[in-house]
């Protein structure tokens, strides 16, 4: 795994996931260490981010490393017409590791092929978000005590939501049952359902929210991804299709935890925030420990 880029969650094996979760738990106990002293991590964000960028930067800072980068490509020479290849080759000269978010699917794979340092995909279009996936696995294991045999309801934008695409691939090792709840316009893409069919993983598809979460262990809410719609009117039609309210959680399992990669728009009412089943803010905190574990693994640090 040393010096290997992380572009898609299937770049890692089940054993890799388990090892990262184990190391993340160690970082949670002791998040301030000096193991990145003298190392530079570049964060190149061609799309907006709060949690992914800042949790990576927090993770690096707490491990004694330095961060360079940009939060908006308009402040880089990309705005003068510089190619992604030239940008990545240049930043490879200045850093030990590149963390990149980009709107184009496949851009992270391309960057990993031209870079001379490892690249971590921090989200490429509607494709993959592997570090979010690993922090989701960490959050699921931490709250459920296991990753095995869980019922996971995924709600909202299952078409464009890259986090659910990564998560079904990773959870497929752990015999889950998936409940996909989405309007017809935002259903889980066929390629992911085919993937589950081939692996013999059970899933159901529904359009109603409240009646399909009662026996779930994890309720994974997602935002409708406005930025991926070509037609704003199509977004307007579905933007508020699901709004989780506290009352809807009556009768759900005691161990149910509500996850959301965030940011939230309207899909979880704020009256849910004080319910003990709400876990989305602790989930975001878990991103720091998980990303510390991922960087330590890729850089070969103990
Ligand atoms: N979960 C996530 O990717 O959040 P940000 O867009 O704020 O990074």
Provide an overview of this structure:
The structure is a single chain. The chain is of the alpha/beta class and 302 residues long. It folds into two domains: 9-128 and 287-298, 3-Layer(aba) Sandwich (Rossmann fold), CATH 3.40.50.1370; 130-284, Aspartate/ornithine carbamoyltransferase (Rossmann fold, 3-Layer(aba) Sandwich). Helices cover 36% and strands 15% of the residues. The protein is built from nine helices and nine strands. The strands form two sheets. It has a five-stranded parallel sheet with strand order 7-6-5-8-9, with helices on one face. α4 (107-114) links the parallel β3 and β4 (119-124). α1 crosses α5, α2 (51-62) crosses α9 (280-298) and α5 (130-144) packs across α9 (280-298). The relative contact order is 0.17. Phosphoric acid mono(formamide)ester binds at residues 49-52, 123, 132, 261-263. Phosphoric acid mono(formamide)ester is lined by residues 49-52, 123, 132, 261-263.
